[in-house]
């Protein structure tokens, strides 16, 4: 009785170094007074989310372009010489654009190093092309296509879209795409076909994302124009391969750029984060 009277007389404090006559896990009504909801919440706008969804679509464009190029080469619509020459010319132009955008002294010093690295890659790639062609020759085509599908899916899932998520792994994403190109290269008729496809995959999945990221940082307004151009190229290239594939691509494009942002905006009012004294302490410098 005396202890309850003493507890009502003294105001409880949220400290552990005082003996207040209660257990360490005791809290009173004042504990929840510091609770706050949706602190520092970010409000999204529909068209802003649509623009940011283009970051995801650009990587999906790359996957569709790569698959379309493979089928065009397999059907002898696209020659490996033309693919190699065009992709090399576009890569050189992209490297110059990236150099102009960054305009750093460190980049100037690394031009010779980049050229040497590319030369080594081309020599090794061409030398190993006969091996790459026969590496998965004994595996059935259905299995190859299944492996390619999952590797390209892994490339999309682990790609760096500019977030700090734990799932992001640019190295794994690139390796998955290169492995997919090696799998498909074994189904092409000549060494030139295999070499051109693997080289194109390296340019598309390793070099193009770097330029794309720099363009987004320095020229954000170009993203809409770039998305329109890439979307048109993918639509035309896929339409020449399969009418069903182009319908699937257009539905996927609609889902990611329109339906997903609308879904996010619709669910935004239901967001309910709580903050209070139970949160971990943050040291502010």
Walk me through this protein's architecture.
- The protein is built from 10 helices and 2 strands.
- By secondary structure, the chain is an all-alpha fold.
- The protein has a two-stranded antiparallel ribbon.
- The two termini are 47 Å apart.
Question: Which structural traits does this protein have?
Answer:
2 strands; 285 residues; single chain; two-stranded antiparallel ribbon; 10 helices; mainly alpha
Condensed summary:
The protein is mainly alpha-helical and 285 residues long. It is 68% helix and 1% strand. 18% of the residues are buried.
Set down the secondary structure blueprint.
Elements lengths: L1 H8 L26 E2 L8 H29 L5 H23 L2 H5 L1 H25 L5 H18 L11 H16 L5 H28 L3 H18 L3 H25 L6 E2 L10
Run of helices and strands: HEHHHHHHHHHE
The separation of the N and C termini measures 47 Å
Major sheet: arrangement of strands: 1-2
What average pLDDT do the residues reach?
Answer: 84
Percentage of residues in DSSP E strands: under 5%
Low-confidence stretches: none
* Tally of individual helices: 10
What is the count of β-strands?
2
Rounded radius of gyration (Å): 28 Å
Structural category? mainly alpha
Tell me the overall shape: elongated
What can be said about the biggest beta sheet? 2 strands, antiparallel
Bin the helical content. 55-70%
């Amino acid at each position: 009785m005396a202890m309850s009277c003493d507890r009502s007389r003294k105001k409880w404090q949220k400290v552990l170094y005082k003996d207040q006559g209660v257990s360490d896990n005791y809290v009173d009504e004042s504990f929840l007074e510091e609770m706050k909801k949706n602190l520092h919440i970010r409000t999204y706008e529909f068209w802003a989310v649509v623009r940011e969804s283009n970051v995801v679509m650009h990587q999906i464009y790359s996957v569709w372009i790569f698959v379309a190029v493979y089928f065009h080469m397999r059907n002898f619509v696209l020659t490996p010489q033309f693919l190699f020459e065009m992709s090399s010319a576009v890569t050189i132009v992209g490297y110059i654009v990236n150099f102009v955008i960054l305009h750093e002294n460190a980049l100037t010093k690394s031009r010779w190093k980049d050229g040497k690295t590319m030369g080594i890659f081309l020599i090794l790639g061409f030398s190993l092309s006969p091996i790459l062609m026969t590496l998965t020759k004994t595996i059935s085509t259905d299995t190859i296509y299944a492996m390619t599908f999952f590797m390209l899916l892994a490339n999309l899932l682990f790609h760096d879209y500019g977030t700090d998520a734990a799932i992001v792994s640019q190295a794994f994403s690139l390796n998955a795409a290169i492995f997919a190109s090696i799998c498909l290269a074994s189904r092409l008729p000549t060494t030139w076909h295999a070499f051109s496809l693997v080289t194109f995959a390296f340019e598309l999945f390793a070099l193009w994302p770097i330029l794309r990221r720099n363009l987004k940082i320095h020229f954000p307004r170009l993203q809409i124009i770039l998305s329109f151009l890439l979307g048109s190229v993918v639509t035309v290239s896929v339409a020449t391969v399969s009418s069903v594939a182009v319908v699937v691509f257009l539905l996927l494009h609609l889902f990611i750029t329109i339906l997903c942002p609308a879904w996010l905006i619709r669910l935004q009012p239901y967001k309910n984060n709580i903050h209070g004294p139970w949160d971990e302490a943050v040291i502010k410098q």
